[in-house]
Amino acid sequence: MSQYRPEGISDVFTEPTDPGEQRPVVQGIGLTGWLRWAWRQLTSMRVALLLLMLLAVAAVPGTVWPQRAQSPEKVVAYLTDHPSLGPVLDRVGAFNVYSSVWFSAIYLLLFVSLVGCILPRTKVHLAGVRGRPPRAPRRFGRFPAQGSGTADDTPEELTRRATAVLRRGWRLLPFVPTYRVETRDEGDGTWSVAGERGYLRETGNLVFHLALVGLLISVATGQVLHYRGQMIVVQGSGFANSQGAYDTFERGTAYSPSSLVPFTLALDDFESRFDPETLASRDFTAHVTLTEPGEKPQAETIKVNHPLDAGGAKVYLQGNGYAPDLTIHDASGALVSDGPTPFLPQDQVYTSKGVVKVPDVTDGQDQVGLIGFLLPTKKTVETPNGPAYVSQFPEPNDPVLVLNVWKGNLGLDTGVPQNVYELDEARMTQVKDADGDPVILVVKPGETVELPDGLGTLTFNGLKRFVALDLRHDPALVYVLVFALLAFAGLATSLFAPRRRVWLRFTPAHDEGDDRSSRRTVVTAAGLARGDDVGLQPELDRVLAATLAQHPDGEANDGHR
Amino acid sequence: MDTGDLSTLLVWAAATAFTVALVAYAVDLARIAERSQRVAQPAMVGSGGGGPVSAAAGSADQRAPSRSVRAEGIARSTHLLGIALLFGGIVLRGFAAGRWPTANMYEFTLVAVFWATLILAVVQRRRIIAFLSVVVMGLAVVALVVALNWFYIQADAVQPALQSYWLVLHVGVAIAATGIFTVAFGASVLQVLKSYREEGLPENAGRVRTTVSGRRFSWLEQVPSGRDLEAMSFRLNAVAFVLWTFTLIGGAVWAEHAWGRYWGWDPKEVGTFVAWVVYAAYLHARTTRGWSGRRASYFVFVGYAVVLMNFTVVNLVVTGKHSYSGL
Asked: What is the mean pLDDT of residues A438-464?
């Protein structure tokens, strides 16, 4: 049978050459054109090897240079720090390695090569699985595993016994035969048995490679259909799952808004625990109320390793912090701002930075901007310029707000989108005291302070918690998992399932004279495996021993069954 | 002294035991080299004195299995003692921290050394392969001392991101794979040396080949054949590769739980992926005409280097989501 085999593979049964059974060498590819040649090259093992190593090398730059997909801010910083080298690197895709043309080209070529190699092999294997074990070769002398013996029984009887021995199943799966067996009457009273096992090895190999293709397709499908949003939810408030509710939202090209199930989620409470000595975090738990459309509200918790399933998506707890609840009246006593403002933690002790913008003042007055820090547990340190405050513990044991005051125009109506956590100081002036030093407000919970320059009053009502949530919907997730597990199972099978051929031949001994007590049958055996197989000779010995076993043993065995 | 200190003490004791084992294996190796040099030059032994003396020397050489029984005894017992001490140290470390002890570089190194030395003991349960032991023991001692001096941090509970059963599965399997890759690497080094020597000296051979074929490497006559070593390295690498694959898949599942994505090209993910690809290339090279044997084992060298870099450089130099060294 002439089989198409991609070039360079040498993992067939490595039969030692025997001058008596030489087969014609497969012809060269001939003048069948460039395309055919290129295809042969691409699907050859050497090129596959080259592509694998290229893939390994090409993946490295992504850890050397910052990546836009993971940390865009670091890319911006790198570009500012390296004004000449940066843009060149950017042009060759050093900041988008894993979506760059060259990286994609390598893995796509690799997968084309894989498919070109695997599909023909699948065809060959499917034919092989239906086939019978090859008949016993004439000479056994050249095989890596050999054995011999003599027996009193007739060749027919021994053939029957050897067949039973080879077909005997595994101890754990007694009904699945290990060997596929073919017996043959070779004439002159000689019988031979041919057994083959381990079709699973190639099956596993093919399953592994095809599963990799499935994995790639699943991942790509997920990329196209997914959506992902991030938002900050303050204790006591909630959000509805709609694109506008997110602070940031990204989606695949084929995402449909209908996959956004309109559930609502509210943050009721948040618990955190820290190690008192090392300040390392020990536990974060968000207690939320989830209301799926058409269902009753349900109390749920979200923890770091335990995302919440909501509306076909998963909601992850990605961050947390404090939101001081502030009430601000302007100079004319009108209530202009009321409610919690998230302050973003900057370090391990939750020194949190935040901005309060007060745009809706009574006509004619200056808009107010407050910028400063929240210290959850304050500690006073003496400095040459007087006492200063730092935070010493992440829990709110003794919180204090330290604020600078700006007045003027916040610039919210300029049409330029603003970061809510930063103050645009272009049209504002910092409020200073009589000595020309910036005014610093220090406020504790429950306190009301006068804003300088008669700007009004500020009341610090208390602290609320906030959580940063990350919501992700990827409909292909289950396929990614299934193909990954298939690949794993296929890989393990292809590496550990032994592929062996075993032959036994029973030849009647030529009785000479009246030596009737001599053994009547000469037994020879040989084994061949794919690749290195330390278990081959022991298995052949076992089969031979079981076949030659005298009646007491055989009967004892039969008796147990 | 609390449980954590006792654990550290046991680890130091294990490092000491392994050092003694390393010296004993090295003595064994030296003895093997000495003997095989003498065997290689029978004329010098036999030509000197009279009949009885040379006959006695010759028969002694034949009787002695050309290795030092005492050194092997010491090596074997201190090797096993070290494994037991290290195991005790790891268990106590877990008790001191109140969790599974695979959460930082220090613990990772301890458990990886445990696996490597255990696999080494299993591989040579019948016959000591002195050179392999010297390579693996050397790596083990260096790793333990580096861990104790530079990776050590106080035993403590872990941050919320690590509070998952995947800490046992994902990290545990990654550590076992690293340990097995280490032994396989040793076997591959030995295989390359041996196969050079087996081939003999071609014309205009390089310096390495000349040295390996020379007298100083005559101990190589005593190690298993290049083909056997290749088979051993392959079997170990195959097991470790399957475990490494599980590390990747389990890591992706955990990342999906903890970070909200199964793959994000985090530096550690990239390193693990690169190592996986290199070892995959190794498995392919083995079955490629013209690449099997010694050339395939070069992939093992590259792969093992990537595994080590992925552990050290990525943990200590690069910042990523896997920054759990605690340093």
From this structure: 89
Overall average pLDDT of the A199-221 stretch: 93
Q: Tell me, yes or no, whether A151 lies in a domain.
A: yes
pLDDT digits (tens, 9 = 90+) for A357-390: 888 888 778 888 899 899 999 888 888 877 788 8
Q: Which residue of A has its CA nearest to B249?
A: A484
Beta bridge partners of A377: A398
Least reliable range by pLDDT among A39-48, A49-58, A194-203, A491-500: A39-48
Specify whether A474 is located in the same domain as A457: no
- Given a cut of 80, whether residue A20 has pLDDT beyond it is no
CA distance B296 to chain A (A): 11
Quote the CA–CA distance of B285 and A10 in Å, as a whole number: 10
Chain B residues with beta carbon closer than 8 angstroms to that of A534: 231, 235
- Residue A10 banded pLDDT, cuts 50, 70, 90: low
For residue B228, the distance in angstroms to the closest alpha carbon of chain A comes to: 9
Render pLDDT for A131-187 as a digit per residue (tens, 0 to 9).
888 888 888 888 888 888 888 888 888 899 888 888 886 666 666 667 888 888 888
pLDDT of residue A401: 92
Inside any domain, residue A205: no
Q: Are residues A391 and A412 in the same domain?
A: yes
- d(C-alpha B322, C-alpha B318), whole Å: 10
Residues of chain B with C-beta less than 8 angstroms from the C-beta of A59: 270, 273-274, 277
Counting as low any pLDDT under 50, the low residues of chain B are 42-64
Cβ atoms within 10 A of the Cβ of A1, count? 6
Contact (CB<8Å) A282/B231: no
ipTM for the assembly: 0.84
What pLDDT, in 10s, does the model give residues A546-561? Answer: 888 754 443 333 333 3
| Same domain (yes/no): A333, A455 | yes
Residue type, A203: T
State the total domains in chain A.
Answer: 4
Backbone phi, psi, residue B271, to 5°: -60, -45
Task: With residue A441 as reference, give the H or E element that holds it.
Answer: strand A440-443
Contact (Cβ atoms closer than 8 angstroms) between residue B153 and residue B326: yes
Residue A217 lies in a domain: no
pLDDT band with cut points at 50, 70 and 90 for residue A460: very high
**Considering the domain boundaries, does residue A209 fall inside one?**
no
Containing H/E element for A49? helix A45-59
Last residue of a domain, one of A125, A144, A171: A125
Backbone φ and ψ of A551, nearest 5°: -55, -40
Last residue of a domain, one of A125, A148, A169: A125
Residues of chain B with C-beta less than 8 angstroms from the C-beta of A318: 260
Same domain, A474 and A532: no
In 3D, which of A339, A337, A338, A343 has the Cα closest to residue A323? A343
What whole-number distance in Å separates Cα of residue B218 and Cα of residue B193? 11
> For B228, left (φ over 0), alpha (ψ -120 to 50), or beta?
alpha
pLDDT surpassing 70 at residue A512 = no
**Are residues A246 and A191 both part of a single domain?**
no
Among the partner-chain residues B280, B288, B320, the one whose CB lies closest to the CB of A10 is: B288
Chain B residues 44-83 with a CB less than 8 Å from chain A: none
pLDDT recorded at residue A131: 81
- CA-based end-to-end distance of chain B: 24
Q: Where are the alpha helices (DSSP H) in A473-535?
A: 477-496
What are the φ/ψ torsions at residue A197 (nearest 5 degrees)?
Answer: -135, 165
DSSP string, B147-198: IIIII--------GGG-STHIIIIIHHHHHHHHHHHHHHHHHHHHHHHHHHH
Give the residue numbers spanning the domain of A368.
325-463
The mean pLDDT value for A8-20 works out to 50
Q: Is A448 helix (H, G, I), strand (E, B) or coil?
A: strand
